[in-house]
Target: Redox-sensing transcriptional repressor Rex
Amino acid sequence: METKEIKSISKAAIRRMPLYLSLVKQQIAMGEKTLSSTFIAEKLNTEAIQVRKDLAATGVVGQPRLGFCSEELAAAIERLLGWDNLQEAFLIGAGNLGSALIGYEPFIENGLNIVAAFDNDSDKIGTEIRGVKVLSIDRLENLIGRMHIKLAILTVPVEVAQQTAERLVSDGIEAIWNFTPTKIIVPDEVIVERTDLAAGYAQISSRLATKAQRKAAENG
Amino acid sequence: METKEIKSISKAAIRRMPLYLSLVKQQIAMGEKTLSSTFIAEKLNTEAIQVRKDLAATGVVGQPRLGFCSEELAAAIERLLGWDNLQEAFLIGAGNLGSALIGYEPFIENGLNIVAAFDNDSDKIGTEIRGVKVLSIDRLENLIGRMHIKLAILTVPVEVAQQTAERLVSDGIEAIWNFTPTKIIVPDEVIVERTDLAAGYAQISSRLATKAQRKAAENG
DNA sequence: TAGATTGTTAATCGATTAACAATC
DNA sequence: TAGATTGTTAATCGATTAACAATC
Model:
C-alpha cells in the first residue's frame, strides 16, 4: 500500500472525529462494510464535502460509488486520535464535576483510564469513586513520576487552578486538561486543552437573549 | 450618551466573554475602577488587540491611557450574554454528568437556575439533588409549558438523545444545550448548543499522540 | 508634552465551501 | 454505459492580527 502524504488537519476537524468514529462503529455493528461521505453528512446534519475533507486527514482512501471501508476508517480515526492506546490519567479535584468524569462512558470506551483521583478534603481521601481511589493531593508529586502519568484532568476550584497547574508542571506532567473556568499559564511545552462549560453557557444564553430582544422589538 | 452602532460579534468572542467577566469582577472586588486591554491580555495569556476587538462588541467605550471602566464593562458583558436575567432551565437526565451540572458554581453565579431534573429511573424519581427535585420524565410535557421553561439541558444517554430532543421540541422548548456525544437534529428555530467532552478529549489525546510519535521518531 | 492606550481600517491566516475532473 | 462518489484545486468566508491615527 502506498503511503499517503501527511495531510494537515484543522483543530475543528479533530474535534469532529469522535462524531465520525461513533457513527462508523454503529455501522460496523449493523454489519455495514462501507459508508459514504453523503451518508455521514446526512446523519450528522452537515455537508458531505466537509466530511470528505476531514476524512482525507486520516489517510483512508475511499472508493468512488461505495465510499469508505468502515473497519479501515474506524481504525484510522482511532490511530489519528491516539485512541488505539490506553491513556492513563490522574484526576485532580474530586468534586462534583470531577466525579462525573470518572465513569463517563465515552471516555472509558475510548481508552481514557482515570487511575487515581486527588483531593485535599480529608473526608474524601481514602474513599473510592466508582472504583477509583481518592488520594491526598500531597502524594501527587511522588506518583506522577513513579506511575509515568502524562495527563492530568484539572477539576479543582478555580481559585487554586493556577497554583495546582504549576505543581503538576514541576512534577513533570505533559498535558493538562483544564476544566476550570480560567486560563492557566504554563510553559509552552506543556499541552493544555481547556473545556469550558461557561463558554457554552455564554453562547446559548446570548442566543436566547438575542431572540428575546428581537421578539420584544417586534411586539413593541 | 450616544448609542453606538451594533457591532458584529464572533462566536469565539462570545465564548471568551466569561473569562473577561470573571477577571473584571475580580478587579472590582479589589477596588480597581478601570482595567486596560493590555492588563486583561497579560492575565489571560492572549493579545491586547483581540481583547479590544472583543470588548468593542459590548459597546463600552474605553479611555485612552486608562482603559475601560470596570463596573460599566461588567454590566455590559452581563447584558450582552443575557446574564443580567435569571435563566430557568430543566435538566433532562439526572445521571453523573447531569448531577454535576446542578450546583456547578459558575452557572449559579451567572443566573442559570436549574429548577427541576427529569429522569426515567424510578429509584431517582422523588429524590433531590442538592435541593433540585427529580421528576418523572413523563411530567415533562405538562411542565415545560406551565412553567414557561425555555432551556433544556440534555444529559441523557446518547442512545435516547435524538428522541428526547424531539419530545422537548414538540413540547415547545426554545433552546437545547446538548451534552450528549452526538448531534441532534431539530428544526432551525430551536437553538442548539453542543458541549462535547469527547471533542476535548480528541484534541488533547491527538496532541499527546503526535508528541509521542515525534519523540519516537527522534529516538528511532 | 510624551507616552500609553483606544478603536478603526487593512492584511493575513485558517477553515469551509464550491467547482469539477477522475474513478469505478 | 450512466451515475454516484471521491479527492483536488480554487474561491469564499470568518476570525485574528497588524498598522496606525486619534485621544487623553
In short: Chain A touches chain B through 61 residues (CB under 8 Å). Residues 87-199 of chain A form a domain with the Rossmann fold fold (CATH 3.40.50.720). The CA atoms of residues 78 and 95 of chain A lie 30 Å apart. Chain A has two domains: 11-81, 87-199.
